[in-house]
Amino acid sequence: MHPNHFRKLEKTLAALEYLFVAKDFHAIEQITVGIRLSADEIRTAMAEYPDELEGFNWNSLDVVEVESSEPNLWAVDIRFKTKLGADSDLTLSLHVQDRGAEFEFCSLEILNIHVL
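The structure corresponding to this sequence follows.
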């Protein structure tokens, strides 16, 4: 992955992480255009997990480039961490797509929030 693409992907995920920490599920639904998961479905998935979560475990970031995609598209999995800083097994799976050099952030599509 080109370093510029990685920086944009990382910046996009950091903004998404901020919204998860703030529990602003409505804003998450808006930036993902509600594709696949609504704010209520995201809220429910997070509430059903037994531990209190806070942010992503960036060491668990798994990015796979979808070949022959134009513009660039990546399949991303990243686990959440607990408030105590421990790794959780709750994973966010999403597609992240570059929107071009004129855009600061990538577009997002949450595929699933699930236990791995």
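The chain has a mean pLDDT of 92.
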